[in-house]
Amino acid sequence: MQMEYNMKSIYKYLRVFRSLFKKRPILLVFDVTRLCNQRCIMCNIWREKSEDMAVTEIKKIAELMRAEGLGYVFLQGGEPTLRSDLIQIVDIFIEAGIKPTVITNALLVRGDLPRQLTARTCNVAFSLDTMKPEVFKMLRGVDGLDKVTANIRAASQIKPRHGNWAIRGTVTSLATLDDIQAVEAFAAECGLMFAAAPYTFVSGTAGRIDDRLVFSDPAPILEIFEYLRDKARKTNFLASLVYDGHISYIKGKPSPMCDALTRSMVMSPKGEFAPCLEFTEESSSLEALKARKGEWLRRCAECNEKTPCICNDVREIGVLWRQKWRIFLHLPQIMAQMIRYGNFF
C-alpha cells in the first residue's frame, strides 16, 4: 500500500513538472459551492443560490484534470464545508492523484469532519485574519471568532495528520503587527503553519472593493510583511520568496505576469472554466477555454498591467517558478526546513 502511494506521488510530481515546463496549469481552483455562512466584506464570490455539481460529475472532472497534467486542487467556495459530500469530493481528487487543499472558515469544522480530514492526504487552510472580535465581526460579517478558534483548536488536536494544515490571513488596512503576531501565535499553539497575503481587488468580481480595507499608508502593511518575510527565512525559505513578492506588490513595483491559465485555472460549481477568479463571469467549457487561450493570455496580460493583483490568480506558483535556480541553490536548507516545520505542497 505504501509503495502504491509512493508511486502515485512520483507520477504526480512528474506530471506537475511536465506541465510547468510546458506552461500549462498545475492547479485547479474549484469553487465547490457559492453558498457561504459568512458575509466577508472583502469577498464577492458567495451567492444565495449555487448550481453545484454532483459527485459523479466531479469524478469525471477529476479524471480530466489528471489527463490535463494538474497535480493540485483548492476546494473552496463560498464555504466548502456546507457540502455534506465534501469528504467524497476530497477522496475523488486523491484517487485521481491530485492533492486537495480544503480552504474553510472553520465554522463547520466540527463533529467527525476534522477526523476524516486528518485521516486523508489532504491539506487544510483555515481563513483567520484577526484575533480581535470586533475586527473579525466587521471583516467576516458574523460574530463568530470564539467558535472559529474553538473549532480550529479542537481539530488541531487530532493526530496524526496526513496533510499539511495552516492558518491563512488577509492583511487589510485594519491589520496591525501585534494582531497578526497574535494570529501567528495561535497557529503555533495549534501546531499549524501560518501565512498571510495582502488585501487585493481588481474589478470587484472576486475581491470586493471596500475603501475601509485599502492601504492608504503602506508603511504599517510593509512592516507586517517584512516581519513575516524575515521570520520565514529561518523556517520556510519558500514562503520568504512569496513574501518578497507581496512586499514588491505593496510598494507598487511592476508585477511579473500572473499565473492565470499558465499555471492555474478556475472552475465554477457547475463545472465551467475561467483563467482566474476575475473572469468567472465568462466561464465556459474547458475546450472553449483552451481554444481561446491566446486571446485569454492577452487579456490577462492587460489586466496584469492595468490592475495587478497578488492573490486572485494564485501568483505564488509563478513567484517560486521564476526563482527555481535560487531555490535549487538553497535546496538543502529548504529540505531541512520542510522536515522540521512541514510544507504546504
**Low-confidence residue ranges:** none
Largest sheet: 8 strands, mixed
- Name given to the CATH homologous superfamily: Aldolase class I
Helix content: 40-55%
Outline type:
globular
Strand and helix layout:
Elements: H1 2-21, E1 27-31, H2 55-68, E2 72-76, H3 86-95, E3 99-104, H4 113-118, E4 123-127, H5 133-140, H6 145-156, E5 165-171, H7 177-189, E6 193-198, H8 218-235, H9 237-250, E7 264-267, E8 273-274, H10 286-291, H11 293-306, H12 316-321, H13 324-329, H14 331-341
Parallel strand pairs: 1-2, 1-7, 2-3, 3-4, 4-5, 5-6
Antiparallel strand pairs: 7-8
Helix pairs in contact: 2-3, 8-9
Short synopsis of the structure:
The protein has 14 helices and 8 strands. With 345 residues, the protein is α/β, with parallel strands linked by helices.
Would you kindly provide a written description of the structure presented here, covering whatever features stand out?
- Helices cover 46% and strands 12% of the residues.
- The protein is α/β, with parallel strands linked by helices and 345 residues long.
- It has a single domain, classed as TIM Barrel (Alpha-Beta Barrel), CATH 3.20.20.70.
- The chain has an eight-stranded mixed β-sheet.
- Helix 2 (55-68) packs parallel to helix 3 (86-95) and helix 8 (218-235) runs antiparallel to helix 9 (237-250).
- The chain starts with a helix and ends with a helix.
Task: Note the main attributes of this structure.
single chain, alpha/beta, eight-stranded mixed β-sheet, 14 helices, 8 strands, 46% helix, globular
